[in-house]
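Appendix C: a fully annotated inverse folding record. The material below is reproduced so that readers can follow the format used throughout the book. The structure is listed first as tokens, followed by the designed sequence.
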């Protein structure tokens, strides 16, 4: 079983694949899964933040485009890392006393078009926001696959409570 919550501006931004319960989590969305669900995202400068909760046999994945939400943001737009982390925790039903049980995996944050010289450095800013959120919530990161100059994929297998991160092939 799995369900997806998308950001308000793009309903249905995660779609069900014809394969066995594979959920593609699109940019600006997140999904929570149990049982046979597999949650996956293709990433460039975006970061994919996954959480595995072995005791509850649940997993969650957010696909974040940007690091920090602007001042005055209502906190529901999961395009931002700063909003996605608390949204994932709420959706999993994790209370602060249970955060120590959670395993976080992350991928993405590449510099695809920036050549390292752009003042925007979106991937780098996303990584910084991720690190800030992990510190703020005291979450344990068990695997990082961040940076580089090529896209990546993150997949969470909710049945096995495992993860896979891979660099995408170059042309």
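Designed amino acids, in order:
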């Amino acid at each position: 079983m799995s369900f997806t919550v998308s950001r308000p501006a793009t309903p249905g931004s995660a779609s069900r694949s014809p394969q066995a319960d594979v959920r593609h989590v699109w940019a600006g969305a997140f999904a929570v899964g149990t049982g046979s669900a597999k949650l996956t995202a293709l990433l460039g400068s975006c970061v994919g933040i996954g959480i595995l909760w072995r005791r509850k046999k649940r997993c969650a994945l957010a696909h974040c485009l940007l690091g920090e939400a602007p001042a005055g943001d209502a906190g529901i737009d999961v395009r931002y890392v700063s909003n996605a982390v608390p949204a994932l925790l709420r959706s999993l039903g994790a209370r602060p006393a249970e955060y120590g049980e959670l395993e976080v995996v992350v991928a993405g944050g590449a510099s695809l078009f920036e050549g390292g010289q752009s003042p925007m450095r979106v991937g780098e800013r996303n990584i910084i926001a991720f690190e800030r959120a992990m510190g703020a919530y005291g979450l344990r990161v068990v695997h990082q696959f961040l940076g580089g100059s090529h896209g990546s994929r993150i997949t969470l297998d909710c049945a096995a409570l495992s993860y896979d991160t891979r660099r995408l092939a170059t042309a």
